[in-house]
Prior knowledge:
Elements: H1 3-17, H2 22-31, H3 36-54, H4 66-84, H5 86-90, H6 98-109, H7 125-140, H8 142-147, H9 158-164, H10 178-203, H11 207-218, H12 236-249, H13 253-262, H14 266-270, H15 272-294, H16 301-316, H17 333-343, H18 356-374, E1 383-384, E2 387-388, H19 391-417, H20 422-433, H21 452-466, H22 470-473, H23 478-481
Antiparallel strand pairs: 1-2
Amino acid sequence: MGFAAVQRVVGFLIAGSSLMMLPPVVVSLWYHDGTATLFLASAAILLALGLLIYFPVRGVREELRLRDGFLIVVGAWLALVLVGALPFVLLTSPELSYVDAVFESMSGLTTTGATIVTNIDALPRAVLYYRQQLQWLGGMGIIVLAVAILPMLRIGGMQLYRAETPGPMKDAKLTPRITETAKALWLIYVGITATCILAYWLAGMKLFDAVGHAFSTVAIGGFSTHNDSLAYWNNPTVEAVAVIFMMVAGMNFALHFTAWRRASAQPYFLDPELRVYASLLLAFSVIVSFGLYVTGTYDTLASAFRYGTFQVISAMTTTGFTTSPFYTWGGALPVILMLLAFIGGCAGSTAGGMKVIRIILLYRQSVREIRRLIHPHAVVPVKVGGQRTSDTVISAVWGFFFLYIANFAVMTIMLTATGLDAETSYSAVGACITNLGPALGLAGPNYAELNDTAKVVLSAAMLLGRLEIYTLLVLLTPAFWRG
Length: 483
């Protein structure tokens, strides 16, 4: 194991993360909110800490192996979450404990959107911006960003890319070189974000809110600059912009890249995962909207469709924006929204959840097993988009599904053991492991009422969900550390 090489990369990333404190300084000076010193102090601490870690091993030139990539990904995420909490710790109003600060930082970088802040509107402008920026950086993955500059360290980046990128199909590259792939992804990401900012601004948001919500929308994060989230505007045009860009961000970014390179929309129509993704969004939007109308939650069918469709898209893409407190809705509707988050968006998107492609493979494998019961000797391949899926991929998907549900169950039990009720426990774990954010019960409005032990467990759930289970759990196996 190349621990020195891992230390070198992590130290470099921590030192580099001091740069993410500079934009909030500019925001603070612009709005005169008095937090510029706080962010400058955070930048200085991060730079000093990063250099302290980096310099002792700056001359190491070991080639990274795949297992080193996993270690760097997890180590870097943990380090960046812990140091990213620094501005929240130094903040005097509101005063946050380190556990709360780490929870908020973890929620931001993993694009979960769960918050312990009870009065978001009272936060200084620079802190509001910093929360949104955390989500935007975490959206595509800080590690993938680092891959674009790792040639400066003379280290190959494919190991990191395969460990970080969400979804089961990780071996396909958009360009021949991994650094070019990372740059291509970020160019698409920045382009969509800029378009989203313009759309929000034209829809009626002030520029500050437009930038913050574009960061959160494209990252599928869910943090807002107001307590009421998008309900603050009560503007159908703003909601329509959010719906469009949540759906776009929930698609595979490789599709966006291919469509852009070919100057054609054909790749979207040919993708089987996207067809299922769109079908599920449409079907559940209709189901939930009619449910809201039938239960009398909204008086008109138009209002029911407006709020129902928004919450379905927000839940399934795991964004977590709200235009209505869905945790107060009656019947099975809140549970349906929570379950949609387990499906999530497409592989290769910024969405959380298990990903649509895995749901497709699980369903088709289940159908194959039923057919085998009827025709034991039949050869029934599992196909997606006309292509046969190997048994290796099927096995990996079933293994992922088991680990996902097992971790969800274990963490739910852990939360109930701390004294929380069942509704709060299962919904909070579900909302965090899927990176959705909003939950039910005590965690409906925010997570401030939860105890510290529960917040630590939920922080782990966020990281598990963001790194898609395997990346983190592989470090807990004895075999990983041997050889």
